[in-house]
Amino acid sequence: MKSPTEINVIKMKSISKVYDNGAVALDNVDITIRRGEFVFIVGSSGAGKSTFVKLLLREIMPTSGHLLVNGYNVKKMPNREIPYLRRSLGVIFQDYRLLPNKTVYENVAFAMRVIESPRRLILRSVNSVLDVVGLRDKYKCFPSQLSGGEQQRVAIARAIVNNPALIIADEPTGNLDPETSWEIMDIFQRINAAGTTIVMATHDKMIVDTMQKRVLAIEDGRIVRDEASGGYGYEV
Amino acid sequence: MKFRTTEYFIKEVATSLKRNNWMSLASIGTVTISLFILGLFLMVVVNLDRMASTLESQVQISVYLKDDITKEQTEALRQKLNSLQGIDTVNYISKEDAMKRFSERLGDQKYLLSALDETNPLPNAFEITVKDPQLVKTASKEVENFPGVDTAVYAQDIVEHLFDLTRLIRLIGLAIIIFLAGATIFIISNTIRLTVFARRKEIAIMKYVGATDWFIRWPFLLEGVVLGFLGGNIAAILLRLAYMALTQKIYDMMTFFPLIPLYPFLTYITIIIILSGIVIGALGSVISIKRFLEV
């Protein structure tokens, strides 16, 4: 069902999401994201960005339409396959979502432990991704001993440790100052350069304008703009 | 399940039990009390049941003979009784046998017999048992009409009352067992819910990184099973002690009272109680984690 030669990492066709209270979060959206792309999802709060991210994770079901993520038919797949869809993705949140009572090393290893990876592989992979995010020497620290940027780097390490084809980042720089945000974006760019697709929902105009990557603008549940190398487009 | 995963689960359970030690103790205590009461009812019901069936099988008809019949007539009567349908055994108890039995039963109070002045007012009798207790009533009626028979009696009232009583106790016992099981499941599920709630963020993260529901559920399930198992064990030990003390006491007072012997009865009770604890613990934890898995 999953084929590594799949070119489209995300394929949304006429996707709509109407919540139980009648609110239309996404309205007939068509998006195709190819392997290796770096895509910003922009739009004001409540425009449908979170819904977009939740749909990719199958945290919620689309009301109608067709959605393929990493080869998984998100709408039709049975619940028991959700874990496998999520293993093919790496997720990063604005609030890091680290486990406070586990060290940096354990937090990253956790993502491998729950999918029952062998201990040796865990040791090797965790050390290597901690190198990627530059936190090798802080592996024994607890999240409370780290700065916000460092915590987000741990979260990134956790997201990439299982080698996902797709990284979904929901406002990853939302809690960080500009300088730290750039450190994060630098890591993203390196991960992307290695071939991993990155989809990042953000408010950060400066980042979007500077990076000159593909931009999808969502407004009132619709895609209002899809530019290959665009800017944020309007004032926030 | 892979070994390293099992190891991980066991560590998780140990940590959780330590972290919520008071709550864990409270749940074990509740399981113990519930299962203890449950076990008591079980033992009472089983004993009464057994008593009823013992008495049932022992129901015999005493056929008292008229004093003036001859040996030949008696012998003819024996044959007639033997040929009756559904008759199991036929025993002849002479006046003398009956008196001997009576004096033995009196024991220390044998001196009462002296009031009889060596006369024997007891009649000759046949004691017959039937294969099917249902036949007791009709058989005794029929036998009463045989020549030479004075009366035929059996312990009708006692048997029927005993059946009514066991039915009632079984019903009440069942109701109480169901109620206690429900209450225990509720309390265990609340204890586990505390653990689950304290770790809901962890559970959400596990779901995001692709853990299966069963991977998440196992440690909590095991925790419930451990709580139920410990509570069940304590209850089983208490039940054994109680039953041993009870049988001893009853044996001292009424030798003939037919309590079920200690073994293998207590082994069965122990197994049932511990298994119930495990099942109740597992159910309680599965119920409490259900809501937190919906991420």
UniProtKB/TrEMBL annotation, chain A:
Secretion signal, residue range per the UniProt entry: none
Key words, A-Z: ATP-binding, Cell cycle, Cell division, Cell membrane, Membrane, Nucleotide-binding
GO molecular function: ATP binding; ATP hydrolysis activity; transmembrane transporter activity
All residue ranges annotated as the ABC transporter domain in the record: 10-236
A matching Pfam family: ABC_tran
Cross-referenced Gene3D superfamilies: P-loop containing nucleotide triphosphate hydrolases
Gene Ontology biological-process annotations: cell division
Superkingdom of source: Bacteria
SMART domains: AAA
Membrane topology: Peripheral membrane protein
Compartments, record wording: Cell membrane
A single cellular component GO annotation: plasma membrane
NCBIfam families tied to this protein: FtsE
PANTHER family: CELL DIVISION ATP-BINDING PROTEIN FTSE (PTHR24220:SF470), IMPORT ATP-BINDING PROTEIN (PTHR24220)
Family: Belongs to the ABC transporter superfamily.
Main function: Part of the ABC transporter FtsEX involved in cellular division.
Subunit organization: Homodimer. Forms a membrane-associated complex with FtsX.
Protein name according to UniProt: Cell division ATP-binding protein FtsE
The organism of origin for this protein: Pectinatus cerevisiiphilus
High-level lineage: Bacteria, Bacillati, Bacillota, Negativicutes, Selenomonadales
Name of the gene this protein is made from: ftsE
UniProtKB/TrEMBL annotation, chain B:
FtsX extracellular domain: residues covered: 59-150
Compartments (UniProt record): Cell inner membrane; Cell membrane
Topological category with respect to the lipid bilayer: Multi-pass membrane protein
Matching Pfam families: FtsX, FtsX_ECD
A GO cellular-component term linked to this record: plasma membrane
GO biological process: cell division
Keyword Ligase: no
Record carries keyword Cell membrane: yes
Record note on quaternary structure: Forms a membrane-associated complex with FtsE.
Official protein name in the record: Cell division protein FtsX
